[in-house]
Amino acid sequence: MPKSERPQSRRAALLEFAVLGLLHDGPLHGYELRKRLTTALGIFRALSYGSLYPALRHLVDSGWIHETTEAATGSSKRPRITYELTADGKEHFQDLVAASGPDAWDDEDFDVRFAFFSRTEAQVRLRILEGRRSRLEERLANIRDASQARRERMDSYTLALQQHGEERAEREVRWLEELIVAERRAALDPGPAAYDDHTTDISTPQSTTTNNKE
C-alpha cells in the first residue's frame, strides 16, 4: 500500500507519533486511546475526537495501523473500532524514535519523546537530553538578561512571574543534568538501570508549555 504524505502540522505529526507509541504496547479502541493520550501526555489533555480520528484515518491509510470493527454489545448502539499497529507501523515508529534533530528538544516534542524513552536507543536519548539542556540554558540566559534590563520598570506581579519562569527553567536544567549523568553512567556500567538510584527522581518536571488546547 503506498504511503500517504506526512501531515504538514508538527502537532499533527506529534499526535501520530504518540498514537503509534501507545499502540506499540497492544491494540486499543478509540475511547481508550484518547483517554491515555489525555491523561499520560499533558500536551493532549484537551484532545478532541475531531482531532484524533483524522490522525487515526491518516495512519490507517498509510498502512501503519489496522482497524477492526467489533459488533455493538450491551446498551451501546455503536460498533467499537480497535486499532492495532502493523509491521510497517512498528518499523515506522522505530524510525521516528531514532530521530534526534532540534525539533526533539522543543517544549511539546520533548515531553512526548521522553514518554517513549524506554524504546529509544541510549545514544539518541543522550543526544536529546543534551539538546534540551542547551535549549533551556539559552532560555534561562535570555530570561536573566531581560530581567536585568527591565527590572526597574517591572511591577511586583510581572517581577514575580519573571522569577517564577527563571526558577522553573533552573529546576528543569538541574533535572536534565541528573538524567544526563545517569545515562552516561549506564553507558559505562551496563546492568541495572541507572534510574534505580533512589536519590534520583526522573519524573518530568512541570511542563513549560502553558497552552495545551487543541
From TrEMBL:
Does the keyword field hold Coiled coil?
Answer: yes
Among Pfam families, the record links this protein to: PadR
Locate the compositionally biased regions of type Low complexity.
201-214
Q: What InterPro entries does this protein's entry cite?
A: Metal_resp_DNA-bind_regulator (IPR052509), Tscrpt_reg_PadR_N (IPR005149), WH-like_DNA-bd_sf (IPR036388), WH_DNA-bd_sf (IPR036390)
Q: Where is the Transcription regulator PadR N-terminal domain?
A: 19-94
The protein's UniProt keywords, in alphabetical order, are:
Coiled coil
Report what the protein is called: PadR family transcriptional regulator
Organism, by scientific name, is Terrabacter ginsenosidimutans
Q: What is the lineage of its organism?
A: Bacteria, Bacillati, Actinomycetota, Actinomycetes, Micrococcales
